[in-house]
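Supplementary Methods, section 5.1.

A reviewer requested that the exact input to the structure prediction be made available. We therefore reproduce it here, unchanged from the version used in the analyses.
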Amino acid sequence: MKMPSLRQVVGGLLLAAACGGASAAEQVKIAMLVKALGSGFFNAAQMGAQEAARQLGDVRIIYTGPTSATAEGQVELVNALIMQKVQAIVVSANDANALAPIAQKAMKRGIKVLSFDSGIVQGGRLMQLNPSSPPLVGHKLVELASQAAGGAGEIAVLSATAQATNQNIWINEMKKVLAQPEYAKLTLVGTVYGDDQSDKSYREAIGLLRSNPKLKVIVAPTTVGIVAASRAVVDEHLVGKVYVTGLGLPSEMAGHVHSGAVKSFAIWNPIDLGYAATYAAYRFVKGEASGKAGEQVAVGRMGQLTIGAGGEAALAPPFVYDASNVDKYARMF
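The structure derived from this sequence is encoded token-by-token as follows.
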């Protein structure tokens, strides 16, 4: 069976960053493989990747992802990227384990594989770049839920896929925080999965609202889910009774903050995340990083990343957005 070209697989989406005059033979081809196309979060990450490419001068960015958030779609694309002979792949994984075998195949071909946002298991990548540390994310999500609930009541989680590495880690961290005496009056009544699809996330949110009449907060640690849950609260006429919080983009959440469905939410800067991931990949390609614990990796305007245990590094704590600042940041991403 003939392997389709990358252009055929992704429907013609091939975005090249400025290359500073470097010839095609001299360019370092870095692929950014995201969970699914059409996500505002990953579109912003791609902007950061292009910024890094312009600064580095000899980098070409290939931005791609499946049309829906599946591991199978990402595996197919990694095969295509191997055939494209890219020097590095930076991937946000839909399934930490399912991506490992194909990532190992890519690394055996000399391709530097890094994961960012949602990781691949350690043996399937050289480094994992977390947008923040999992404990900080988990604590922030519970803190926001507590504030929205007035310190007591039922909360529920609307996640992405059941296999999403980052989502599961954050939810586990949330459970640790909820076990602390400070949050004893909050009760987690359920976790559902919208598979990072808008329609399914909306249906799952409606299900939570209708099956839990005492529910006070839906926590959605996914940019797709938080928008869908906010829409569900409005459509069910529960604004002021049920609140939504989690991780979202200001550009997508400003209207929901103003509607009253959301008091506050958080996110890191996806532009910075894409930028740092691209710089890190470049350092690996150039032999300036290997992924060892304690190693320092220079990532342009973001400074230095320190690789810790398990080959993981992290950027900054999540930043909170509310009615006082969401419009300002909505103009940015």
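The longest strand covers residues 186-193. These observations are discussed further in the main text.
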